[in-house]
Write a structure and sequence with these properties.
The protein is an alpha/beta fold. It contains 33 helices and 22 strands.
């Protein structure tokens, strides 16, 4: 009487006529003889059945089970497991082989450690017979031993792409049967049919051990992977892997109920599920023919929500995102019955972006819309939220979690349209727009600064916005010149809308009256945040110095909160160093009546901003009758035909001081400027903003808000972009020079004896010509301008040569 086999090898086969003999031979030459080999023929239509019968006749250890219809390898393995007599089981695919010590070595380790699972290394062989080293390395066991919940966590680590090849392990037969018993008896999984089973086994297992030897030979490329997907039948076959991983969720929940940490187990499963969704999407995007791509993506969206596709991409396969964005379907706002609008920004503060958003919320509610305000980060001032608006501060710790929260918010509040106020300042807005679009929610991007801002900041956000502009149903900017820029960049769904008035502006309109110039000293005021980068607050000190040279008797009050490393204390220290403290003073932040008192005690508002989208302080100053002295910002709609403004060329404090001095000596002109200021400010608040915003969210803005660019627009934009690229490059260069200087300073504040190089020489090889150094300094500018206007690329070398020749 023969002994029961100690180990079973289960081989699911389907049309493996050319390779199954090799698989069987590898089983029958095992160093351990007391085994059984169960071949489950999943309704093969070639000569596979004949080969199996021949082996079964030659060796009684080979048993053959035939399935009358093709039920997938998942069901074939089930049949093999139910028939197995061995306490342990190895799985072998019909086109691979076992190494001859696989059974003996893996079983010995399992019995020694009383393990439910034994992992081993794999030999990976390519079609040319050579070892595929990289893949072989990735398949090596990562752990020597794991216990209890650690088995699942080790084999399926959270936030790592999931791998679930059954042929990398030896299993205790009973635990595999328990896993199968938790699933429907008729479950068929044509694609990714091994990972679901391995996952359940790992969740049930109490002990895992591994060996470093290679016990399995995997033939890379023999299976169905890597094939072109040119029919929907193929696409549906590969997409079915999503159903495979979803099919085990009820079983996972059942295991979780008995777990000491059910939430951790479910989080683990969610990670694996999203990993498979990301993998399937990645595979189909890489292998589907272009003509079939839209149809394939439509099918993917029937297999899993758009949120899952986006989060899976962010979490595991970022390379999926461009194609998902490119092929997402626009939302037709004109046919949508918009009732619920969501406004979003980073955090609600007293800053300009939040001010616009809050005013917008009030006007939208006045137009009859339900408004939800979402802050994507902590730190909001909740007392700013208008009465009647919902407010949510998102709490997710990472982008995948926040996208899931975003999806819930959009669904819970039945959002129709999102107005995103961060598209010029954020790098992850496209992911939010992608998720919203998947839910049928339109996204409108709202820009708060001139189109040259990313050029000035040298932050690369222009390319991000252009590449993802198709995710926006509308891109709203603040001026016709901005619209020209974006349309010239190919973003044709651009329009501009005036910024809404602030409460200060609206309240002041009722009491505004012209001012007269007193015979006393000239009172100047500036308010905003102490932002050196965009508002150039240090230039206020330069203007003051020039006014002293012109013998103007004045007092300049600077009002505003600190910003980055600029504070009122630092500002005043610089004022004292320049011996201007009797004429200039920063007083910190002022609000409400204190701010109004400071404005009303002033004779004029001075602005030194280098870039703005809509400088609200100009309108707020003008409505109180103050003339405005500022550097030119020619795109601003509020400076167009505004006779209450005196503008001088950028970054020329002497010119601005001369303009102020001239008016201070001409009371009649001052009064004319004051009257013109009030008139211009009233024009700014004359719009029906509720109607304008209604037209924005329903995509019915009149054509006048989306003008076509002209040649003159292109010329002006080119000049401005070069200007901001040069200013941005200067700031970057000066910043590096400051870092270099600080490195030369020792701990006691003394500077080293080495002679510092001039800024213009920093990074310049000794002996380089003046012209070459000029080109080197201009290179960042050139790269930035060419990035925005690639049509200039053919002229770049001629420009370089001209610069070098001019400096020789």
């Amino acid at each position: 009487m023969s002994l029961a086999p100690r180990l079973t090898i289960v081989i699911p086969v389907h049309n493996d006529e050319s390779t199954v003999a090799g698989a069987l031979d590898s089983c029958l030459v095992q160093t351990m003889r007391n085994i059984e080999v169960i071949c489950v023929d999943d309704a093969s239509t070639d000569g596979t059945a004949r080969v199996l019968e021949e082996y079964a006749e030659r060796d009684p250890r080979v048993r053959v089970i035939r399935q009358s219809s093709n039920k997938s390898a998942f069901q074939a393995r089930r049949a093999g497991i139910l028939a197995a007599q061995g306490e342990y089981v190895l799985f072998l695919d019909g086109d691979d082989e076992l190494l001859d010590t696989a059974a003996e070595r893996s079983l010995a380790v399992a019995e020694e450690h009383k393990a439910d699972l034994v992992g081993f290394a794999v030999e990976v062989v390519g079609a040319d017979g050579r070892t595929v080293g990289g893949y072989q390395e990735r398949l090596k066991p990562k752990f020597t031993e794991l216990s209890a919940a650690g088995v699942l966590q080790g084999l399926f680590p959270v936030d790592k792409p999931a791998q679930g090849q059954l042929w990398r392990y030896l299993f205790r037969t009973q635990i595999v049967r328990e896993a199968y018993a938790m699933l429907p008896a008729d479950l068929v999984l044509p694609r990714v049919n091994d990972l679901p089973l391995l996952y359940l086994v790992a969740a049930l297992a109490q002990k895992f051990v591994s060996v470093s030897e290679r016990l399995y030979r995997y033939h890379y490329g023999r299976g169905g992977s890597g094939q072109v997907v040119d029919t929907m039948a193929q696409a549906e076959f590969y997409a079915d892997a999503i159903r495979s991983i979803s099919s085990i969720e009820p079983a996972v929940r059942l295991i979780a109920r008995k777990s000491s940490d059910p939430a951790e187990l479910m989080d683990n499963y969610e990670s694996v599920r999203l990993s498979i969704i990301g993998y399937v999407t990645s595979y189909l995007l890489a292998h589907t023919t272009s003509d079939l791509m839209p149809q394939m993506l439509d099918h993917l969206h029937t297999c899993t929500p758009a949120l899952d596709l986006a989060v899976a991409a962010v979490r595991f396969y970022p390379s999926n995102l461009p194609a998902l964005k490119e092929h997402s379907k626009p939302v037709d706002l004109k046919s949508k019955n918009v009732r619920n609008v969501l406004l979003t920004t980073r955090a609600l503060t007293t800053g300009g972006v939040s001010g616009v958003l809050l005013a917008q919320a009030n006007f939208l509610m006045a137009a009859g819309y339900n408004v939800t305000i979402v802050a994507r980060r902590f730190g909001s001032e909740r007392n700013l939220v208008p009465q009647g608006a919902h407010f949510i501060e998102m709490g997710g710790s990472g982008l995948p979690d926040r996208l899931a929260e975003w999806s819930e918010i959009c669904q819970d509040f039945h959002i129709d349209v999102v107005i995103d106020h961060q598209v010029l300042y954020s790098r992850d807005w496209p992911e939010y727009a992608l998720v919203a679009r998947g839910l049928g929610v339109a996204t409108i991007g709202w820009l708060h600064n001139f189109a040259g801002r990313p050029i000035y900041d040298l932050n690369g956000l222009h390319e991000l916005l252009k590449a993802n502009a198709s995710l926006l149903e509308k891109l709203i900017s603040l001026s016709p010149l901005d619209v020209a820029f974006w349309k010239l960049r190919g973003v044709l769904n651009s329009a501009y809308v005036p910024n809404p008035p602030s409460p200060l502006l609206m309240e002041s309109a009722r009491i505004s009256r012209p001012k007269k110039l007193a015979n006393e000293r000239l009172e100047l005021v500036w308010w905003g945040r102490l932002d050196e980068h965009t508002k150039r607050v240090s230039q206020l000190i330069e203007v003051a110095a020039q006014l002293r040279k012109l013998s103007v008797d004045f007092q300049l009050t600077v009002i505003g909160p600190k910003w980055q490393d600029w504070t009122a204390t630092r500002f005043n220290a610089e004022v004292r160093r320049r011996r201007l403290h009797h004429f200039v003073r920063a007083v910190g932040e002022r609000r409400g009546e204190e701010l109004l008192a400071a404005i009303d005690s002033a004779d004029a508002f001075v602005s030194t901003s280098i870039i703005e989208g809509y400088q609200l302080t100009i309108a707020e100053a003008q409505i109180r009758g103050l003339p405005v002295f500022m550097y030119e910002l020619p795109w601003l709609t509020l400076v167009q035909d505004n006779d209450g403004i005196v503008a001088t060329p950028q970054q020329n404090p002497a010119g601005l001081a001369q303009a102020i001095a001239a008016v201070s000596r001409d009371p009649a002109r001052y009064e004319a400027l004051s009257r013109a200021s009030i008139s211009a400010a009233n024009r700014e608040i004359a719009y029906d903003f509720s109607q304008l915003y209604q037209q924005v969210v329903t995509d019915t803005l009149p054509e006048e808000f989306s003008p076509e660019p002209t040649f003159e627009d292109a010329r002006r934009l080119l000049d401005l972009m070069i200007f901001y690229a040069e200013r941005g490059a200067d700031e970057q260069s000066n910043g590096k020079a400051q870092v270099s200087k600080s490195k030369r300073t020792n701990g006691k504040g003394r500077v080293s004896s080495r002679t510092p190089r001039r800024n213009s020489d920093l990074g310049s090889p000794k002996g380089m010509s003046i012209g070459s150094r000029a080109w080197r300094a201009a290179a960042p500018v050139g790269r930035t301008v060419l990035q925005v206007f690639p049509g200039l690329r053919p002229h770049a070398h001629r420009i370089k040569r001209a610069i070098i020749l001019r400096q020789k």
